[in-house]
Specification:
The chain is mainly beta and about 325 residues long. The chain is built from 2 helices and 21 strands. The chain has one domain. It holds the Pfam family YHYH.
């Protein structure tokens, strides 16, 4: 082992001291505080659901009629299946009790595709549309009004680009991925589990389950492998969204930070080659109800589950806060 002689070690210390004292020719070195913590979020990833063990005291009402150009749907927004406990009290999933609504939706009977997609979320003002209505009369309304920084009452300074993903945080959803608005309207944020179970949907058939706000049909999960051939195999449709990798770019003050984990809808990104479906979780093709072909949407198990974009022009009857 080699040792530095005392006299040499002392000379080295004096030289270092001399350099550090001379601040006229050297730059200051930044000091890193080892106690400074990395930016994190207090939002918790939570996909748990409440039980569905409540029978509603209302009968489900759904009526559909058509004219030459319009499909009209009337509903009281009450499902036929069991729901969670809502309305306050012990075990309640949120304080809003389910109540009958009086909804009328007018949709184009022969919808057309728009030149571009329309988002359900306006990044300046928040959610602007619900997505559609199922054949039980209950709305699909996937976008939560939960912008960053999540401080209760909404203010003009919220960041709608970073909106909590209702399916991945605890917003009091029951087993149907549904809960209740302050108006008493029961609505789905994701796959309507018991509604689908009651339909007993086979995995070798396309099954239409509702209409989107632009008039195009909605199917659940399965569709023809060859979109142009109704005799081709029926397969599970895959969305083209993936969870981003790395960390969010925010500072924790104006935008969230921490790792992309699905807490925010914006944690996901559309990658055209990642799946079968397009940005609106849909595609063009033939279906049992539209043998000549149409654009149609698909409810998937994976994100986004319920589409977050329209391919056509949405009816104002689905505009939120109207």
């Amino acid at each position: 082992m080699n040792f530095i002689r005392p006299t040499a070690f002392l000379s080295l210390l004096l030289a270092l001291h001399s350099c550090s004292d001379d601040n006229t020719t050297s730059d200051e070195t930044a000091v890193i505080d080892p106690t400074e913590e990395a930016c994190t979020t207090d939002q918790v990833l939570d996909s748990s659901r409440g039980p569905c063990d409540v029978t509603l005291p209302y009968a489900s009402e759904y009526e559909e009629s058509t004219s030459e150009t319009t499909r009209t749907i009337a509903s009281n927004s009450i499902p036929e299946h069991l729901v969670g406990l809502f309305g306050g009290g012990s075990g309640s999933l949120n304080p809003n009790a389910i109540s009958e609504q009086s909804e009328t939706y007018e949709l184009p009977l022969n919808p057309t595709e728009a030149t571009d997609f329309t988002s359900l979320l306006n990044q300046n003002t928040g959610p602007q549309y619900s997505f559609g209505v199922l054949l039980n009369g209950v709305e699909l309304d996937p976008v939560a009004a939960e912008p960053f920084p999540h401080e209760g009452a909404l203010s003009a300074n919220v960041n709608w680009e970073w909106n909590l993903e209702a399916l991945n945080v605890n917003l009091g959803l029951d087993c149907n991925n549904a809960h209740v608005q302050p108006t008493g309207k029961y609505h789905y944020h994701g796959s309507p589990i018991l509604f689908l179970e009651n339909l007993d949907i086979p995995d070798n058939e396309m099954t239409m389950i509702g209409y989107a706000a632009d008039g195009f049909p909605i199917y659940y999960k399965y569709a023809y492998e060859d979109a142009t051939d109704a005799s081709s195999a029926v397969i599970t449709m895959t969305p083209s969204y993936e969870l981003k990798s790395g960390n969010r770019p925010g500072d924790g003050v104006t935008a969230p930070c921490d790792v992309y984990n699905g807490i925010y809808s914006n944690d996901y990104e559309f990658i055209e080659t990642a799946g079968i479906l397009d940005r609106a979780n849909g595609r063009n093709g033939v279906t049992p109800e539209y043998p000549d072909g149409t654009y149609y949407y698909v409810i998937t198990d994976a994100f986004p589950s319920v589409p977050r974009y329209f391919r056509g022009t949405p009816s104002n009857d689905f505009k939120l806060g109207r």
